Amino acid sequence: MSRESEPLLRALNRMRSVILDPSLLVKAVASGKQRGTTPEWRRAEIRYVDLKAGRHLQITTYDATQAFTANHPVGDPSALDDLLDVPFANWIVTTASEQIQIQAKTPTTALVSTTELTAPVEAERGHDQPKERLLPESDPVFRVLGLSDKDGNLKPSRQAKYRQVEEFLRQLDAALSDAMKSGKVRRPTAEEPLRIIDLGAGNGYLTFAAQRYLTEVRELPVVVTGVDVKEQSREHNTKIAAELGVAAEFVAGTIDGVQLTEKPDVVLALHACDTATDDALARAVEWEAPLVLAAPCCHHDIAAQLRKAPTPAPYSMLTRHGILRERFADTLTDALRASLLRLSGYRVDVVQFVESQHTPRNTMLRAIRTGSPVKGGSVKKEYDELVAEWGVRPKLGELLSK
């Protein structure tokens, strides 16, 4: 193995030439962060794949919870160049005969190590890589819920719902791990299990999947409660719980009317329609829930207000066309919800939790309670200015009296 120091830019440029050569590259991996920086991605993986349209450079980037994969035509270096601008601390590039590691020691210098491989490495060009499922399609919970048949095969008509639940579980898993590690969510015990409430439970897909994953895979003591306005949903889900043999309670009632004997640790709301999401977020704040995951649906309230209120200059193009106004209403609604949660003492991330080809309703608000409500400051000022500028009254703001 050889090891030497050299300018970081020169090392990256040499590495770039290797990555851009399909005959050389097996795989490249970037990770870590340079001191004093906050990279957009925590990890990136690069390889070549063979598609129907020919060979492409595949770049997969990872944030705190999920992966994003994009394929780029051979000969187009723009995506790679953008990635090289990210201040990763480490790069490992594997070719058929050697492995090159670049460690950024300062913003301008690097330690470069080159190791000859004892045996040739063959590149894997296949496009579809198997993805480990948190709950496999054959899990009993999906058979009982009707997503899979009696043999454990996913029904074609239920693929979108399965993917939606699977990706929600990934968000729940990552957020719960983060909150427990930081001490924001307590470590559950058999005497004091983790208390989860699903507001707007519907047919219980998320409720049962969360209970199953956390108890059977993560082996956490968990108690779940599902709330839905329909008595039919309560009866259906109670029957499913008995069939699965799980301890789950289901309540028929409104989100703003449900009463709990003990405060929940985790509040979930998957596609509660329109202002029902605001009701769910308001209850979570009222309960001081340490962790909140909400995937909003149907932003009718702000959209209706935008149709009536005059559009401030110079933003008329945002509301002139119906489809753009509806999309802007979605964005404005969730931006205001995120601000209100921050004002209520939460750290908030707004993320995509499932690809748009599976459902257009793919935005998630992920909030961890960090402390007391914010009384003023820039967040409050920006919120007040935004609602005043657009002449809107967010439902969540009314519920929280902000």
Automatic annotation (TrEMBL):
One of its GO terms (molecular function) is methyltransferase activity. InterPro entries: Methyltranfer_dom, SAM-dependent_MTases_sf. One of its GO terms (biological process) is methylation. Keywords: Methyltransferase, Transferase. It comes from the Bacteria. SUPFAM superfamilies: S-adenosyl-L-methionine-dependent methyltransferases. The keyword Translocase does not apply. GO terms for cellular component: cytoplasm. Residues 161-305 form the Methyltransferase domain. This is SAM-dependent methyltransferase.
